Amino acid sequence: MTKLSSFALGTEAVIFDLDGVLADTEPVSFQILRDFIAPQEVTWATYQTLIGKSSVDFAIWLKETYKYSESAEMIRSTAEQYREDRISEILVPEMPGASALISQLKQNGLKLAVASQSSKQWVKAILKSSNLEQFFDLVISADEVDQPKPAPDIYIQAASRLAVLPKKCIVFEDSLTGVTSALSAKMLTVQLRQATPQPPMAVEADLVINSFAEFFSEYLKSET
């Protein structure tokens, strides 16, 4: 058996973002976007500036960039449906080390949740593809809260539904937007910089790590 180090003493729940944390989805999302806007084009460098944006902000960007005549809301709906239809056809493996860490946290009796900026259908498809869906007590998506990240709504609601105080939760996030959201919810926040592309460092995070394996080896230790 193992236990969390003093870094996370008193933790009762661990909450994970999805994209860039549990699965390395950005290269997949980039390809889906390229197919959606074809024959128009988008560069990888430009795509990286969109990571972490809400679906509404992303739709506004699409409308302004490609001069679509449809409303931003119609673009958002169409783009999300296209994305969800495509992801069901694509195999997206887990982020390396995710299942090993999650299995151990589960064995330690911690409650586990996913809190994602993406739609519920996208989240379910990724969890199924990566074989991680069986681990979680709660899955909550942006559709279920009033304000998306960087507002703290999704994390506050996750803690409430888990019946755990925010200060008893650890969050794993990758983007600066996600880190801000978790910190605003008064949760212990770990930035994971394992995604493609590697996110900029969130200096305000409580802990910054480069892999799940690093967290496993440094912050979980054997009981004596």
Write up what this structure looks like.
The structure is a single chain. This protein has 224 residues and is an alpha/beta fold. It has 2 domains: 2-25 and 92-222, Rossmann fold (3-Layer(aba) Sandwich); 26-87. Helices cover 41% and strands 15% of the residues. Strands 4-3-2-5-6-7 form a 6-stranded parallel beta sheet, sandwiched between helices. Strands 1-8 form a two-stranded antiparallel sheet. The chain is globular, with a radius of gyration of 17 Å. 41% of the residues are buried. The model has no long low-confidence stretch (mean pLDDT 92).
Principal-axes shape call:
globular
Give the rounded overall mean pLDDT. Answer: 92
Largest sheet: 6 strands, parallel
Across the major sheet, the strand order is: 4-3-2-5-6-7
Record the SSE blueprint.
Layout: E1 2-4, E2 13-16, H1 26-37, H2 44-48, H3 55-66, H4 72-87, H5 98-107, E3 111-116, H6 120-129, E4 138-141, H7 153-162, E5 169-173, H8 176-184, E6 188-192, E7 207-209, H9 212-219, E8 220-222
Parallel strand pairs: 2-3, 2-5, 3-4, 5-6, 6-7
Antiparallel strand pairs: 1-8
